[in-house]
Amino acid sequence: MTVRRADLTPARLPRGFADRGAAELKTLREMTERIRETYELWGFEGLETPVFEYTDALGKFLPDQDRPNAGVFSLQDDDEQWMSLRYDLTAPLARFVAENFQRLPKPYRSYRFGPVFRNEKPGPGRFRQFLQFDADIVGAASVAADAEMCMMMADALEAVGVKRGDYVIKVNNRKILDGVMEAIGLGGEENAGRRLTVLRAIDKLDRLGPEGVRALLGRGRKDESGDFTKGAGLDDEAALRVLSILKAKTADNLETARRLFEEFSSTESGQDGARELSAIATLIEQAGYEGRVSIDPSVVRGLEYYTGPVYEAELTFTIEDDDGRPIQFGSVGGGGRYDGLVGRFMAEDTPATGFSIGVSRLLAALTALKGETAPAADGPVVVLALDREHIGRSMAQAAKLREAGIAAEVYLGSSGMKAQMKYADRRRSPCVVIQGSDEREAEIPQVTLKDLVEGAKAAAAIKERSEWTESRPAQVTVPEERLVEEVRAILARHG
């Protein structure tokens, strides 16, 4: 009879967080390694910063500055100083550069990879912890650095398997958007909060469409769950002025930049932004990235610290969901220029630009693109332990395999052979090593190797039990001294 304890803690995963199994981790590792190789080809070096930063180092650039104590997860240390889990990898980079400014080469090219945290309402595809892979150039004021970021983002997507034509890197300029704000009377520090609300509304264009954005520019919008998001409070004329920038988009990058210049000829900020986009368009064409990188005035980026060009990596291919409906993954990364962020820690501003790839979202998109779940990770060779008195010999066999670079483990449970074979199947083992008393006590000690991959194929084709018994599929007995050689042959057979 099973007796249940009254004080058991329920096993439950916190909302907005996810576990990852071996198969996903293997695919993730392979994908991020290709991204890392791309960054290093472009001359970037690795950097790791801690997951916690002092909250005042994040300052006004918290994701939700209009919601006190929200947007980030915070706690007090033993000095009663507030620390917060990083919400991105850019703010920690700014702090690192300021602390080490004198010894770093300028421009400083770095990449970072790791988890970031958002204290936001979780939902489908929206997590409180997720992975980012960033690359940044600090100390380069030229828009050539922004153009390089866009080109490298394109190269990274192709390196992980996204075909040319299945993505686009879209570029805009926050100075264009500043020009819009000036034109509708939202310039000045006193309107910073409303400007941020407007930017976030435009940033949701892909997800909500023009009508959803129009609602957020006005009084606000109620989502499917009934939650209401307060809008920017713009009147109809101002809202239409904001949405008008989307009409400047053409198939030609230089023509789009020219139209934006004309649209905002009355504002100095808008003109500067259009000139910078024109320069980026020229560099893109000269470097051979036209068609992969596109000037697009719909790009906003939600964070306040961007000061110039902003860009997004968007996947353009369409797949079908379980109900046959077409879906598009949209943005899988983005970034921009943030010339004021490092300057929060120093006497003068330091130019900087960079982008971040949303690793988890990109991984999901690649899995969907291939039309299959993430490939299962290969497990280790399992050495069965049929006789506990001789488990040391089993350990020696596993050690010999590991010395040869073959992943191997000894079964350490207490079950019999049938359960051990089931264990090997669950571990996705390519083969098992069996040594009973007959093999061990033979004149020339032997081992039996069972190829579980071939065995599964053969089993699927065998209908009668007698046929199974006679065939003993994918099983071979060899001298123990040939263990490594024979296991290696089995592994080679399966790639």
UniProtKB/TrEMBL annotation:
<comment type="similarity">
    <text>Belongs to the class-II aminoacyl-tRNA synthetase family.</text>
</comment>
<protein>
    <recommendedName>
        <fullName>Histidine--tRNA ligase</fullName>
        <ecNumber>6.1.1.21</ecNumber>
    </recommendedName>
</protein>
<dbReference type="GO" id="GO:0005524">
    <property type="term" value="F:ATP binding"/>
</dbReference>
<dbReference type="InterPro" id="IPR004154">
    <property type="entry name" value="Anticodon-bd"/>
</dbReference>
<keyword id="KW-0648">Protein biosynthesis</keyword>
<feature type="binding site">
    <location>
        <position position="301"/>
    </location>
    <ligand>
        <name>L-histidine</name>
    </ligand>
</feature>
<feature type="domain" description="Aminoacyl-transfer RNA synthetases class-II family profile">
    <location>
        <begin position="33"/>
        <end position="375"/>
    </location>
</feature>
<dbReference type="GO" id="GO:0004821">
    <property type="term" value="F:histidine-tRNA ligase activity"/>
</dbReference>
<feature type="binding site">
    <location>
        <position position="132"/>
    </location>
    <ligand>
        <name>L-histidine</name>
    </ligand>
</feature>
<dbReference type="GO" id="GO:0005737">
    <property type="term" value="C:cytoplasm"/>
</dbReference>
<comment type="subunit">
    <text>Homodimer.</text>
</comment>
<dbReference type="GO" id="GO:0006427">
    <property type="term" value="P:histidyl-tRNA aminoacylation"/>
</dbReference>
<dbReference type="InterPro" id="IPR033656">
    <property type="entry name" value="HisRS_anticodon"/>
</dbReference>
<dbReference type="InterPro" id="IPR006195">
    <property type="entry name" value="aa-tRNA-synth_II"/>
</dbReference>
<keyword id="KW-0963">Cytoplasm</keyword>
<feature type="binding site">
    <location>
        <begin position="88"/>
        <end position="90"/>
    </location>
    <ligand>
        <name>L-histidine</name>
    </ligand>
</feature>
<keyword id="KW-0030">Aminoacyl-tRNA synthetase</keyword>
<feature type="binding site">
    <location>
        <position position="118"/>
    </location>
    <ligand>
        <name>L-histidine</name>
    </ligand>
</feature>
<feature type="binding site">
    <location>
        <begin position="305"/>
        <end position="306"/>
    </location>
    <ligand>
        <name>L-histidine</name>
    </ligand>
</feature>
<dbReference type="InterPro" id="IPR036621">
    <property type="entry name" value="Anticodon-bd_dom_sf"/>
</dbReference>
<keyword id="KW-0067">ATP-binding</keyword>
<dbReference type="InterPro" id="IPR045864">
    <property type="entry name" value="aa-tRNA-synth_II/BPL/LPL"/>
</dbReference>
<dbReference type="Pfam" id="PF13393">
    <property type="entry name" value="tRNA-synt_His"/>
</dbReference>
<dbReference type="Pfam" id="PF03129">
    <property type="entry name" value="HGTP_anticodon"/>
</dbReference>
<feature type="binding site">
    <location>
        <position position="136"/>
    </location>
    <ligand>
        <name>L-histidine</name>
    </ligand>
</feature>
<dbReference type="InterPro" id="IPR041715">
    <property type="entry name" value="HisRS-like_core"/>
</dbReference>
<dbReference type="InterPro" id="IPR004516">
    <property type="entry name" value="HisRS/HisZ"/>
</dbReference>
<keyword id="KW-0436">Ligase</keyword>
<keyword id="KW-0547">Nucleotide-binding</keyword>
<dbReference type="InterPro" id="IPR015807">
    <property type="entry name" value="His-tRNA-ligase"/>
</dbReference>
